[in-house]
Design a protein that fits this description.
This protein has two domains: 183 residues, Rossmann fold (3-Layer(aba) Sandwich), CATH 3.40.50; 84 residues, Rossmann fold (3-Layer(aba) Sandwich). Helix content is 37%, strand content 17%. It is built from eleven helices and ten strands. α3 links the parallel β3 and β4. The termini are far apart.
Length: 294
């Protein structure tokens, strides 16, 4: 059984003159860091004697894809992963999560859609781990936060984390009813995120608060503003954040300073393995940025 490092530490940090607390879920494990450790904890902790194959889908550089490839290898399962597109460059030069998952035995297939109905010998996991089993690990995250609040005599707390499917933010809000959980949609817009919430929880009263920027943001597009804030975060905090979700998360959070009116906890959800492929793209496109004057 793989041992994960729970509870993850919480650091006190200042960024752009805003004090906040940082929940370092990125330090839980190199294979299951951040929200993947939480979402897939149920599958790590339970036996599935009838399962022979794991099936999932998503993007070709998904953090979830890599973690699932490790899970399948640990359990002795086949792993089949579906994508709708693989870039020619990535096929020719495998790197990042894609290469690591292939090295773990992943069979990747290209198809427009995928069935969610399988025999009991197949475990199907939704894109990014968006399913009820994720509640198991996210509840444990909520319990860690409650224990930390009590130890540090913190009565009021706002919590912020960027979202893909919104699964972590949703279940956190469910188990932290006396706190306000804020998030932002990184993959789609607010309507997309609301649909994801409703697929898991019909009661909108327990949904997190979704914040956004005025300007539309396109997922995985290389924005100079994202690169600059990522660099500033590293310079000022010494922490490496994910390049896909965290830059937008921080831009949104700083655009809503009212969140900092009470102690604020930012949850680092890992994903930094994906920086191996994202960072060179940013460096090539924005090589003119003077890192000394950020």
């Amino acid at each position: 059984m793989k041992t994960l490092h729970f509870p993850s530490p919480i650091q006190s940090i200042t960024f752009d003159e805003h004090h906040f607390y940082l929940k370092r879920d990125d330090l839980i494990d190199s294979d299951f860091s951040g929200n993947k450790a939480r979402k897939f904890y149920y599958f790590l902790q339970h036996d599935f004697p009838d399962v022979r194959k794991l099936v999932s889908y998503g993007s070709a550089q998904s953090n979830a894809m890599y973690s699932l490839s490790v899970l399948a290898k640990m359990k002795g399962w086949e792993f089949e992963y579906a994508v709708d597109h693989i870039a020619d460059y990535l096929k020719a030069h495998p790197h990042g999560n894609y290469k690591a998952a292939l090295d773990n035995g992943m069979k990747i297939i290209q198809k427009e859609s995928i069935s969610s109905s399988y025999p009991k010998s197949v475990l199907f996991i939704e894109e990014g781990g968006r399913q009820q089993e994720a509640e198991f690990g996210i509840r444990a995250l909520a319990e860690e936060i409650v224990a930390w609040k009590e130890e540090n005599d913190i009565t009021q707390l706002n919590i912020f984390l960027p979202s893909g499917t919104g699964t972590t933010a949703l279940f956190l809000q469910k188990y932290l009813p006396s706190n306000r959980v804020y998030t932002t949609a990184c993959v789609g817009d607010e309507n997309y995120l609301k649909e994801q919430f409703l697929s898991l929880e019909k009661d909108e009263n327990v949904h997190p608060v979704t914040l956004s920027l005025d300007k539309k943001h396109h997922f995985a597009k290389l924005y100079k503003e994202n690169y600059k804030i990522w660099l500033k975060l590293h310079q000022q905090t010494g922490v490496e954040f994910d390049l896909l979700y965290d830059p937008l998360g921080w831009r949104v959070l700083l655009a809503h300073p009212e969140v900092f009116s009470i102690p604020t906890l930012y949850i680092h959800q890992g994903g930094v393995l994906g920086n191996e492929s994202m960072l060179p793209r940013y460096e090539r496109k924005y090589k003119d940025i003077d890192k000394d004057i950020l």
